[in-house]
Amino acid sequence: MEQPIFSTRAHVFQIDPATKRNWIPASKHALTVSYFYDATRSVYRIISVGGTKAIINSTITPNMTFTKTSQKFGQWADSRANTVYGLGFASEQHLSQFAEKFQEVKEAARVAREKCQDKTELTNPALSIPSHQVLPSPIISSNGPGEDKLFRSQSADVESSTEKERLKKMLSEGSVSEVQWEAEFFSLQDNNSKLVAALHEANASVEQWKQQLAAYQEETEALRLRVAELEAQGTHDSSSENNKEELSQTLEELELLVKAKDEEIQMLKSQRCRWEAEGEREETLQKLQELEARNAELEQRLQLAEQSLAESLADRDRMHHEVAKAAEIMDVKIFELSELRQGLAKLVESN
User: Can you say whether the dihedral through the CA atoms of 119, 125, 131, 132 is positive or negative?
Assistant: First the structure.
């Protein structure tokens, strides 16, 4: 058995497939989570075993991203397993170590994939087309202008009678914003899975183009051999000359067709590179910037709520102090009134 590259202990969670919002714990206790390298397939995996069952068996690809959602919690999406894994660590240091190792292993997986692609190109010099390159699908579009949001924050126009209700309302609006961020995050993950499916379909289309190209090349080679045989016979009859002209014309047409297919495949390669480099990266960066801006806005609103709460507490303490002072004055007045009543009673008795 291969030895793990790196191991740590964490509580393992998986996203709820029904709601895509809640976390489902994989076990009651912390499990050992390890990085492994599969030398037979030249891939890196994250594996965690609970009893006799593999809780995590995730193959790391260069497109994966490990995200720290809190000081002790991180997550990543696995499109092949169609799930999102979450890990809760005992300390922030353990989380940082796991995240750094994730980056190293992802870079190693990218290098391994490039080496595998180079080997494929060497074994197929006539094609020189990496099998992983795919046609971008124009059907799938992530976060278009007509896409419906999963969750919307609904604000109720209700008059608050006290300062305490107003503060509760502000805090509840912050909670709704956090839920909306989570919904947008899982929406991005769903779009990512759709893009992966489109890439697989486009990859299958490229394989079909490759098979057709190989068939055209075989047919061209057979026609070339036929032309060589006809030239060797050296016959001067008209029928042989006509057949030779027809075969030569057919050969030229097939060569033009093969050249057109090569140009089309090169165009597909360039379109795929532009699509991956511009579309997906810009969209992801834009979403991250929006989330950071909303996070800053929520922090500012929370600070204002805390300040207002502190002012309310100060007003309440001041009111308590004034009430106590008024009670003391009232006690003095009651005492003076009782003395006046006693003096009046003595005066009445004397009279």
Answer: positive
